[in-house]
Specification:
Largest sheet: 5 strands, antiparallel
Number of helices: 2
Order of helices and strands: EEEHEEEEEEEH
CATH class: Mainly Beta
Strand order of the largest sheet: 4-9-8-7-6
Strand content: 35-45%
Helix content: under 10%
Number of domains: 1
Structural class: mainly beta
């Protein structure tokens, strides 16, 4: 089932190939302030219909690109390497969509997995 999403002003619109089984809430300093619930996809499983207002924030190591809409300010998606082993795997890039932006979908019905980013990094 394809799931669609967009930022508040619709400058960023996307489609994901499937509904995620879980979403992640990270407690690191940036994620806790951005307030996203993150759904992880391979780049081939996400299609951007529009992304013309994208702005990117990177800090420190510049490993992750944290994207947001410059028009409405919504935190839209991240571009990261796979961190499932605890180390960045640059051979396995990910698009991490903010599941709170899924259109016509109750993200509250998906189990939330918490990452203790506050203490991990």
């Amino acid at each position: 089932m394809i799931i669609k999403g967009s930022c508040h002003c619709k400058a960023t619109q996307f489609e994901a190939a499937y509904v995620p089984e879980t979403v992640t809430r990270c407690t690191c300093s940036i994620c806790s302030k951005r307030g996203g619930l993150w759904a992880y996809y391979k780049p081939a499983d996400v299609r951007f219909i529009s992304d013309d207002a994208k702005e990117t924030y990177q800090w420190s190591s510049k490993i992750c690109k944290l994207n947001f809409c410059r028009v409405c300010g919504c935190s839209t998606y991240n571009e990261t390497p796979d961190f499932s082993t605890g180390e960045p795997n640059f051979d396995n890039p990910q698009i991490v969509l903010n599941a709170r932006l899924f259109d016509d979908f109750d993200v509250g019905g998906i189990p939330v997995f918490e990452i203790d980013g506050k203490n991990l990094w």
